[in-house]
Write a structure and sequence with these properties.
The chain has 223 residues and is α+β, with helices and mostly antiparallel strands. Among the domains are: 60 residues, Orthogonal Bundle (Arc Repressor Mutant, subunit A), CATH 1.10.10; 78 residues, SH3 type barrels. Helix 1 crosses helix 2.
Length: 223
């Protein structure tokens, strides 16, 4: 049986690996988890001994097939919990991540399946992240582009907000930017600010925030 800390590492490796399409380095994982590099090195050795990561010195790690299965199981728990908290317990979508982090290690597969059934087996969580099904298969998803790469005049629909920290989620929630919201790109400043029109008014977003927002064109949503 894996500890909660081990599961957190596996989930973090999966997230970084899928965001960058590269092997995950010790320093990058340390920054992501806010721990020291020696702590990361010690844990990666344990995960390697369990057959959950493939580690190459100076090149970082990737999840093995077994490690990816574990990651998808954790993500299924986490994202269904987020959906349950928002839909059934009236949590704000920006406030469910920490709560789901605490609960994801303690729910059984039976409870997870019952939550999924009660919610109608949703394909995405409140942030637009895909939820693995009971067979740990991810649903098909439309191709998206990051808001940080948009051009002035683009009209887009927010499809997903990639989680980097609760502060970022609350910032976007306060700005009225969440999955399903339509945005018009008004200005791309040379120093990185992306100004958009939302249903609540204009918002200027730093590039590092705009990069978290995945969108599709409004015309695609209407098609």
């Amino acid at each position: 049986m894996l500890s909660a800390v081990m599961e957190d590492y596996i989930k973090a490796i999966y997230a970084i690996q899928n965001d960058t399409d590269e092997r995950v380095g010790t320093s990058g994982l340390a920054d992501y988890l806010d721990v020291t590099s020696p702590t990361v090195s010690s844990m990666l050795k344990k995960l390697e001994e369990r057959g959950l990561v493939d580690r190459e010195e100076y090149r970082g790690v990737t999840l093995t097939d077994e490690g990816e299965v574990v990651a998808l199981e954790i993500l299924r728990h986490h994202r269904l919990l987020e959906a349950f908290l928002t839909e059934q317990l009236d949590y704000d979508w920006a406030d469910v991540h920490e709560e789901a982090d605490r609960l994801e290690h303690h729910v059984s597969e039976e409870l997870t399946d019952r939550i999924a059934e009660a919610l109608g087996n949703p394909g995405v969580d409140p942030h637009g992240d895909p939820i693995p099904d009971a067979d740990l298969q991810l649903p098909d998803a439309d191709a998206t582009t990051r808001l940080s790469t948009a051009a002035e005049g683009d009209e887009v629909v927010v499809r997903r907000i990639r989680h980097q920290g609760d502060e970022e989620l609350r910032y976007l929630s306060d700005a009225g930017i969440e999955p399903g919201v339509e945005l018009e790109v008004l200005e791309i400043a040379p120093f990185g600010l992306v100004t958009v029109r939302t249903p609540a008014g204009e918002q200027s977003l730093p590039e590092e925030i705009a990069r978290l927002i995945e969108t599709t064109a409004t015309s695609e949503a209407e098609a």
